[in-house]
Amino acid sequence: MNSIEKKCKKYSRSGIAAIAKKAGLYPYFKQISSEQGPIVNMAGRDIIMLGSNNYLGMTGNPVVKEKALEAMKEFGVGTTGSRLLNGTFQLHNELETRLAQFLGKDDCVVFSTGMQANLGAISCLLSHRDENFLFSDELNHASIIDGVTLSKIERDKKIIFKHNDMADLEEKIQQAPKKKSMIITEGIFSMEGDIPPLDELVKIAKKYGAMTYLDDAHGVGVLGPEGRGAAAHFNVTKDVDVLMGTFSKSFASCGGYIAANKDICNWVRHHARSFIFSASVPPANCATVLAVLDLIEHDNSYRNKVLSIADRMRNGLNDLGFEIGKSTTPVIPIIIGDDIKAFRFYKKLFHNKPRGVFTNPIRAPAVPEGRELIRTSYMASMTEEMIDESLDIFSNVGKKMKIIS
User: Fold this and answer.
1) Interatomic CA distance for residues 405 and 394, integer angstroms
2) What ranges make up the beta strands (E) of 78-147?
3) CB hemisphere CA count around 14 (13 angstroms)
4) Exposed/middle/buried for residue 306 (C-beta within 10 Å: 0-12, 13-18, 19+)
5) Are strands 242-246 and 256-260 parallel, antiparallel or unpaired?
6) pLDDT per residue over 160-197, tens digit each?
7) Residues 211, 213: Cα–Cα separation, whole Å
8) Band of residue 127 on the pLDDT scale cut at 50, 70, 90
9) What does the alpha-carbon distance between residue 20 and residue 310 come to, in Å, rounded to a whole number?
10) Is residue 55 packed enough to be buried (19+ CB in 10 Å), middle (13-18) or exposed (0-12)?
11) What are 288-339's pLDDT values in tens digits?
């Protein structure tokens, strides 16, 4: 047997997934047999969905669904080619123009996924030939880490600063030549639900001539006026050089983008391998994002509702005695500190009767070892009654497992 096959066979037999399955604790790849709204059908039961990134509840919005259907009828179901060749449709150009305007930038490049946006943009903007330095928050997403790896900059030029610690960032960035650095952070950290002090970060970037790159995948739609994101929330949009985001959260679709000045976007269009060598976003996906933009540009009710729902849940979890970190957003972690205990908590929540709760158990390397957690997230389409029911379930299960007293 080939060594690669041996590795795969060994993992199937004794890897962490196999161990979790044997213990009845495997939490992944749960099948959903309904639309992904606040209540979903899983394993033949109605489950309260507290594990989705559908922050604005747009996956089920009738206007959004109708616009996607119209685009499919007019342009077909796929593009069959990359943007560089035969895959640029009218809707792609319209979407890039609209997003650039919405985000307050000159231009925008739409990728097929958010992962590809970070892989392609970061790897082609950073360069070992230019002797660039990279300063990255220690809790940045895997797509950022992989994009930096693909850039091939030297290890000693990849510098990690403590999470949201601007004093640590400034101390470390002093070792790099001015105008040679990029600082990367997230708008809302996807596991902890907290936000960085962007106003302080951009001051440091200006002082040392660093480019700023903001992964705002979870922030756009939720933070800032009309949901224009974390940079708008801090009123520093003009000071952030690259805004990255996805369509798989508030925009209820699939895809990703970077927005920046025209020179940066032109460079990315002609150098980002994940853009050049991937089929473009299907027309229905583009139409979905455009429809959501039409709704949120003139209506803050969706954003206000999800923030209100998250506040209600956060206050409730805090009152019950759960450790929830520093979240101020619709992403609320419940810190458990042990992966098996987190899996057991997830399982008991899911199998609660008469109705269970779906959450996301998170373990290393997605979070540091010893900070294993249950990630919960919330939608504008939820009701206060659903939140109260969820809190009752968390209370009962938490007390039985002695996570709270």
Assistant:
1) 12
2) 107-111, 133-137
3) 3
4) buried
5) antiparallel
6) 999 999 999 999 999 899 999 999 999 999 999 999 99
7) 7
8) confident
9) 31
10) buried
11) 999 999 999 999 999 999 999 999 999 999 999 999 999 999 999 999 999 8
Query: Which tens digits make up the pLDDT trace of 292-303?
Result: 999 999 999 999
Tokens of 38: 């606040």
What ranges make up the beta strands (E) of 19-106? 39-42, 45-49
In this structure, is the dihedral angle defined by the CA atoms of residues 330, 164, 257 and 29, taken in order, positive or negative? negative
What residue type is 95 in one-letter code?
A: L
Does the reported pTM lie above 0.90?
Answer: yes
Backbone φ, ψ for residue 245 (5° rounding)? -160, 180
pLDDT digits (tens, 9 = 90+) for 344-367: 999 999 999 999 999 999 998 889
Which residue in 237, 305, 280, 288 sits closest to 98, CA to CA?
288
Sole residue written with tokens 């938490």: 398
Whether the predicted pLDDT of 128 surpasses 90: no
Q: How far apart are the C-alpha atoms of 68 and 286, rounded to whole Å?
A: 8
Inter-CA distances, 284 with 44, 79, 112, 189, 279, Å: 29, 10, 13, 28, 14
Please give the DSSP secondary-structure letter assigned to residue 157: G
- pLDDT of 130 higher than 90: no
**In the structure encoding, which two tokens stand for residue 233, read together?**
């929330």
**Single-letter amino acid code for the residue at 336:** I
**Residue whose tokens read 């060598």:** 277
**201 Cβ contact partners less than 8 Å away, ≥ 6 residues apart:** 166, 169, 183, 185, 212
Distance CA 244, CA 114 (A): 8
